[in-house]
Design a protein that fits this description.
The complex is a heterodimer of chains A (791) and B (234). Chain A is α+β, with helices and mostly antiparallel strands and 791 residues long. Helices cover 51% and strands 16% of the residues of chain A. Chain B is of the alpha/beta class. The N terminus of chain B is likely disordered. Classes of the chains: A alpha+beta (791), B alpha/beta (234). Chain A: It is a multi-pass membrane protein.
C-alpha cells in the first residue's frame, strides 16, 4: 500500500507540473530561509561552547559608573594579585592584551590587527587546538609565538616551514614560532591571528599601574568554587589595591565576573573589540523564519486543498473500493511529507550554493556542523512539521467527503472552507505587508542617519590611526609636514574621531559636590577647526595663550548644562580631570553639541582638553583632487613611519562601521521580505489559476452575453484582491507598533510617516494585482465557445 | 415473484426512503420502495431521469445510507451500518462499473485493477497473479502498462470491469456501463457482463437503453422513486 501511495504521489507531482513547481518552489524557499536562520542562530548560541573548561571560565569586568556598563579592560597587576589572594577559588588567571603590531619576516611585513599578548596559560585555559607544538609549553619562553594556520601560510607558505622560524614584532622583538593553532572559528568571542607572551611587556611603564586599562583578565575557577563566592571578596580586594585611586577619582570602582558563555551577548557598548552578538537581531531572525515558514505552509495547505478537489474522482473511487478515511488521510499526509522531503533536499543543495554569499552577508564564516545531529534533527523536524501541518487540512477535508459526491466531481469547497482559505491568504499578506513596512522603515531610518546633520563637518576628511611607535614618536613631524604639504586645510591629533573612542572620566568641578562624569576628548588646538565645530560661547584653544595646554578646557553644550550652567555662565569656571590633571583647568569655551557618539545614543557631556593621548590624526583635505592628496599623505607617512603600511579611512565612511549591524539587518530584512512576498504571490498565483479555471464557464457565459475583457478582468481581480486589502489594513497597526519599538533603539530617529504605510500597501497591492492578472487575463481572453463546450 | 424464490434473496429492501434536502426544498428520491433480488439474477433498472435509479444503486452498493426502511444484504441488515462496516462489507462483496469508467488517471491499467486487492489486503504475489488472470480474461493484457488516457473507451470500460471483478465479488453494480460507448463496444461490454452472470455473479444494472436491458432477466421500472412495473425477460 505504501508503494502505491508513493507511486501515485510521485505521478501526481509529475502530472501537475505548475502546482508541483509552486509547491516545491515555495516550500524550498521557506525551508532554505529557515535553514539559513537556523544555522545563524545555532552559531550565535554556540559561541564559546567549544572550550572544555568553559563552565569554569570567567572574565573580570571593572566598573566605576553605576549608570554605564562595566568595561572588560583592566591593567597588568590584577591577574597576579587575584591569583595570589584567592588561591582557594582561582585555579588559573590569564591576561589577554589585544593589540596590533607590525609583524615581519624577511621581505614580508604586515600590520597585523589581531595580535594577542597573553600569559603562557592561554592555550591551557582555552581550547584552541594546536596543529603543531604543545599547548602547555608553547608560550613558556617569552621569545615564543604561536600563529594560526592561515597566518603561518601567509608568512611561510606552509605550516611545516613555519615551525622554528623567527619573526619580528615592531622591528624590535624576535619571536620563534613554537606552535601553529587551528584558525579561530567564527563562534568564538576571542579572535586572533598571532599569540605571544605578555611577559615581553610586563616591565613597560604603565603596565603595572592599577588604574590603567588595556587587557582582559580571564579566570579559571576551581571546581568547588563559585562565581558568587569569589565576587564576595571583590570589595575587599578593591579596597586593598585601589583605595588611593578611588579617593583620587572620587568614584568607587568595582569588579564583577562574566561567565564565558555570557560574554558574547554582553552589552556591545562595553566597547571591548571582541565579537559580540545581539539578541534583538537573533529575535528578529527567528520571527522572520517563523513568518516565512508560515507563509509557505499556508500556500501548501491552500493549494493542496484546491488540487485535491480536482482529485475528487480518485478519492471517490478509492472509497468505493473500500478505502477507509484513515487510508486517505495517510495518503494525503504522505504526499505532503514527500513534497516536504523533496523541498528539504533541494534546500540543502541550495544552501550549499548560497553559503558563500550568506557568509558575506553575515560578515563572518558560519561553521556548519554537518557531522553533528542538530542540523539533521532540524531537517527531520521541518519535514514532519511541514508535512503534517500542511498536509493535515486537505487530508481531513477530503477524506470526509461521501464517495458519491466525490465520484460525481461535485466536491464543493464549502463556505467555511472558502472563509478559512481567505483567512489564510489574509494572514500571508499581513505578514508580507508587515515585512515590507519593516524594510521601508529601516531604510528610511538609515537614510535619516546618513543625511542627518551631525554638527561636525565630515566631508573630505581622512583618518589615520596613530597605532605604532614610529608614527607616535613622530606625530608632530607628521602633522607639521601635512600642514605644509598644501593639500591639507587642517590636521588635528586626538584621542577619538567622531564615532570612535570616548573614554568616560571623573571630574571635580567648581561649585559641585558630587563628582562629574563626562566623556573625554584629548586633542590639540586644531580640533574645533578640523571638525568644523561651532563655538557658542568663549573662544577656541589658541597658541596665543601659552597656558592653554595645561590650563584650558572646552565643554560641549550638554556638559555645561549638566554642570548647571548656560554656555555663557560656564566660561571662567574651573574643572579638573581627577585622573589626568594635577590642577584645575579653566573653561575657555563651549561648543555646540555634535554627535560624537552613534545616533543610537543620546547626546552626552563632552570635555575637550589638550591632555596627552593621541590615537588618531584627523586630516581635513583641501577641496580638489582627493587621490593626489592621499598620495601626498602617504608619502609623508612613509617618511615618518617607513616600515608600516599606510592605512587610512574617511570620516564619512565611519557610518558604515558604526551602523554595521543595522545595515546588515536592513539588507537581510529586504531580502527576506522580498522572499516572503514572492512566496505569498506564488500562493496567490495558484489560487488565481484555480479561480479562473473554476469560473471558466461563468466567464464564457458572460462573454457570450457581451461582457468585455476589462469587465471580466475586473470581476476576477476584485475577488482575489479583497483579502490582500484586508491584510494591509490588519498589518498596518501591527507594523506601526513593531517599528515604533525598533526605532526606540535610536536616540535620534525618523518619524513613522503615513506614506510608509501607504507605500507598503500600494506595493503589495500592485504585486498581487500583477500576479493575479496573469491568470485572469488568460481566462478573460479565452474563446467562450471553447470554455462552454468543455463544460 | 416471491414464488420463484427457492432460497432467501441476496438483496431484500423494504419501504426504503431517501430524501435530498437543500435549504428550501426537500426532494423524495426513493419513496417506500421494496424490491427483492435473488442470487444469480441479472436485473436492469430503468426509468426516466430523476426517478431514483442512481440513488437506489448507491444504496444497494452501500455508498450511501437510506433515510428510512430496511436493506438486508445476504441476511444482514445494513441500513444503519457505520461507514467503516459498510466499506468492509462492500470491498469483499461488491464490484462497481460506471458510465464514465472512473479509472484513476495516475495509475496504469495493471495498477488500477490491482487497487481493490490492495484495500482487501491481498498479498503482493497473489495480487499479480489475480490481476494478470483477469486482464487476460478481459483481453487487455497487452495494455497492462498503459495509462487510462492512452486507451479507447471500450478498452477503458473493460479495465473498469476487470477492476470490478478482480476481487471475485458476489454482486456487480453497473451504472449505465455502455453510456459512453459506441454500439459495437457497448455490445462487447454487455457480452462480458452476461458471461459474468452466467458464471454466477449477480448483476444489477441501471440503464437507459432498452437494447441493453434485453440482456437482463428482469427489468424494474422506476418512476418518482417507486417501482411501477417489472418485466421478466424470457
Amino acid at each position: 500500500m505504501l508503494k502505491n501511495f508513493i507511486k501515485i504521489a510521485w505521478r501526481n507531482l509529475y502530472k501537475n507540473k505548475t502546482f508541483s513547481l509552486i509547491h516545491i518552489l515555495g516550500l524550498t524557499m521557506g525551508i532554505t530561509v529557515c535553514l539559513m536562520i537556523f544555522l545563524y542562530i545555532t552559531n550565535e548560541f554556540s559561541v564559546d561552547s567549544f572550550h572544555k573548561q568553559g563552565k569554569n571560565i570567567y572574565r573580570v569586568m571593572r566598573g566605576f559608573d553605576p549608570a554605564k556598563p562595566r568595561t572588560a579592560y583592566l591593567s597588568g597587576p590584577y591577574a597576579p594579585a587575584l591569583l595570589n589572594d584567592y588561591p582557594q577559588d582561582i585555579k588559573m588567571a590569564v591576561r589577554v592584551r589585544p593589540q596590533n603590531n607590525l609583524v615581519s619576516f624577511g621581505e614580508k611585513a604586515f600590520n597585523e590587527q589581531k595580535v594577542y599578548a597573553t600569559d603562557p596559560g592561554f592555550f591551557k585555559l582555552f581550547s584552541f587546538p594546536l596543529i603543531k607544538g604543545d599547548a602547555t609549553t608553547a608560550l613558556e619562553n617569552p621569545n615564543s609565538v604561536v600563529l594560526t594556520e592561515t597566518t603561518a601560510k601567509k608568512y611561510f607558505g606552509s605550516t611545516e616551514n613555519a615551525m622554528g622560524k623567527v619573526i619580528q614584532i615592531d622591528k624590535t622583538l624576535q619571536l620563534k614560532v613554537t606552535g601553529i593553532a587551528k584558525d579561530v572559528p567564527s563562534n568564538s568571542h576571542l579572535d586572533f591571528d598571532i599569540v605571544f607572551p605578555i611577559a615581553n611587556y610586563t616591565k613597560d611603564a604603565g603596565f603595572n599601574v592599577w588604574i590603567n586599562n588595556g587587557l582582559f583578565v580571564y579566570l579559571l575557577l576551581n571546581e568547588h568554587s563559585t562565581q558568587s563566592a569569589l565576587e564576595s571578596h571583590f570589595t575587599q580586594f578593591m579596597d586593598k589595591y585601589m583605595s588611593k585611586d578611588m579617593q583620587r577619582f572620587g568614584a568607587k570602582f568595582d569588579l564583577k565576573l562574566t561567565p564565558l558563555k555570557g560574554i558574547y551577548f554582553e552589552d556591545a557598548s562595553s566597547f571591548d573589540n571582541v565579537r559580540h552578538g545581539d539578541k534583538t537581531v537573533v529575535f528578529i531572525f527567528i520571527s522572520i523564519a517563523v513568518l516565512i515558514m508560515l507563509i509557505a505552509c499556508i500556500n501548501f495547505m491552500n493549494l493542496s486543498t484546491i488540487r485535491a478537489v480536482e482529485r475528487s474522482k480518485e478519492v471517490g473511487m478509492r472509497k468505493v473500493m473500500g478505502a477507509l478515511r484513515n487510508h486517505l488521510i495517510i495518503q494525503f499526509i504522505g504526499e505532503s511529507l514527500l513534497l516536504a522531503l523533496i523541498s528539504c533536499a533541494i534546500s540543502v543543495g541550495l544552501l550549499l550554493m548560497l553559503m558563500p554569499w550568506y557568509n558575506q552577508l553575515l560578515g563572518y564564516k558560519l561553521s556548519v556542523a554537518w557531522n553533528e545531529p542538530p542540523i539533521y534533527l532540524f531537517l527531520v523536524g521541518v519535514i514532519l512539521i511541514v508535512g503534517l501541518l500542511a498536509g493535515s487540512y486537505p487530508a481531513f477535508f477530503l477524506s470526509a467527503f461521501s464517495p458519491i459526491e466525490a465520484l460525481k466531481g461535485k466536491l464543493r469547497l464549502g463556505k467555511g472552507g472558502t472563509l478559512l482559505r481567505q483567512s489564510l491568504v489574509v494572514l500571508q499578506f499581513s505578514i508580507s505587508v508587515l515585512l515590507i513596512i519593516g524594510t521601508i522603515v529601516i531604510m528610511n531610518q538609515m537614510h535619516y542617519i546618513k543625511s542627518k546633520s551631525l554638527g561636525y563637518d565630515k566631508a573630505q576628511t581622512v583618518i589615520v590611526s596613530i597605532d605604532n611607535n614610529d608614527i607616535y614618536d613622530h606625530r608632530r613631524q607628521f602633522k607639521d609636514e601635512l600642514q605644509n604639504s598644501g593639500v591639507v586645510s587642517s590636521v588635528s591629533l586626538m584621542s577619538g574621531q567622531p564615532g570612535g573612542f570616548f573614554d568616560t572620566h571623573t571630574f571635580t568641578a567648581e561649585g559641585q559636590h558630587d563628582v562629574f562624569r563626562s566623556r573625554t576628548e584629548f586633542a590639540d588646538f586644531e580640533y574645533v577647526k578640523t571638525l568644523g565645530l561651532k563655538i557658542i560661547a568663549g573662544r577656541d584653544f589658541s597658541t596665543q595663550f601659552a597656558t592653554d595646554t595645561t590650563n584650558a578646557v572646552l565643554l560641549n553644550r550638554t556638559a555645561a548644562k549638566e554642570l548647571g550652567y548656560t554656555p555663557q555662565q560656564a566660561l571662567g569656571k574651573w574643572i579638573r580631570n581627577n585622573g589626568r590633571d594635577d590642577k584645575p583647568r579653566t573653561i575657555v569655551g563651549v561648543v555646540e553639541d555634535f554627535n560624537f557618539l552613534s545616533l543610537k545614543e543620546n547626546m552626552d557631556a563632552l570635555v575637550i582638553a589638550p591632555n596627552d593621548d593621541r590615537r588618531v590624526a584627523v586630516i581635513k583635505l583641501k577641496p580638489g583632487n582627493i587621490p593626489a592628496a592621499l598620495a601626498s599623505i602617504k608619502e609623508i607617512y612613509a617618511k615618518v613611519a617607513p616600515v608600516y603600511p599606510f592605512e587610512y579611512s574617511f570620516l564619512d565612511q565611519q557610518f558604515n562601521t558604526t551602523y554595521k549591524n543595522d545595515i546588515r539587518q536592513q539588507a537581510m530584512l529586504s531580502i527576506f521580505s522580498g522572499l516572503a512576498i514572492f512566496i505569498a504571490c506564488l500562493g496567490l498565483f495558484g489560487l488565481a489559476s484555480f479561480t479562473a479555471a473554476k469560473r471558466t464557464k461563468e466567464i464564457g457565459v458572460r462573454k457570450v452575453l457581451g461582457s468585455s475583457v476589462t469587465n471580466i478582468l475586473l470581476l476576477l481581480s476584485k475577488d482575489m484582491l479583497k483579502p490582500v486589502l484586508l491584510a494591509t489594513v490588519i498589518a498596518m497597526p501591527i507594523g506601526y507598533y513593531c517599528m515604533n519599538k525598533w526605532l526606540q533603539n535610536f536616540a535620534y530617529r525618523t518619524t513613522l510617516h503615513w506614506w510608509i504605510f501607504v507605500l507598503a500597501a500600494v506595493l503589495t497591492f500592485l504585486i498581487a494585482l500583477f500576479t493575479i492578472s496573469f491568470k485572469s487575463l488568460k481566462a478573460a481572453l479565452a474563446n467562450p465557445v471553447k470554455s462552454l463546450r468543455s463544460e | 415473484m416471491a414464488g420463484m424464490m427457492q432460497e432467501a434473496p441476496m438483496i431484500k429492501i423494504t419501504n426504503l426512503e431517501k430524501f435530498y434536502r437543500t435549504e428550501e426544498v426537500e426532494t423524495i428520491a426513493l419513496n417506500k420502495l421494496s424490491i427483492e433480488i435473488a442470487t444469480g439474477e441479472f436485473v436492469a433498472i430503468m426509468g426516466p431521469s430523476g426517478c431514483g435509479k442512481s440513488t437506489l444503486l448507491n444504496i444497494l452498493g452501500m455508498l450511501d445510507d437510506p433515510d428510512a426502511g430496511s436493506y438486508v444484504f445476504n441476511d444482514i441488515e445494513v441500513a444503519h451500518f457505520t461507514e467503516r462496516k459498510r466499506a468492509d462489507l462492500r470491498k469483499h462483496n461488491i464490484g462497481f462499473v460506471f458510465q464514465s469508467f472512473n479509472l484513476i488517471d495516475e495509475l496504469t491499467v495493471f495498477e488500477n485493477v490491482e487497487l481493490p486487492l490492495i484495500y482487501t489486503g491481498v498479498a503482493s504475489a497473489e495480487r499479480v497473479k489475480r490481476v494478470e488472470e483477469v486482464l487476460d480474461k478481459m483481453q487487455i493484457m497487452h495494455r497492462r502498462n498503459h495509462y487510462p488516457q492512452q486507451l479507447s473507451g471500450g478498452q477503458q470500460q473493460r479495465v473498469a470491469i476487470a477492476r470490478a471483478v478482480v476481487n471475485k465479488p458476489k454482486l456487480i453494480l453497473a451504472d449505465e456501463p455502455t453510456g459512453n460507448l459506441d454500439s459495437s463496444n457497448g455490445n462487447d461490454v454487455m457480452e462480458l457482463l452476461t458471461d459474468l452472470n452466467e458464471q454466477g455473479t449477480t448483476i444489477i444494472m441501471v440503464t437507459h437503453s432498452e437494447h441493453d436491458a434485453r440482456y437482463s432477466h428482469r427489468i424494474i421500472r422506476l418512476l418518482d422513486g417507486q417501482s411501477v412495473m417489472e418485466n421478466i425477460m424470457v
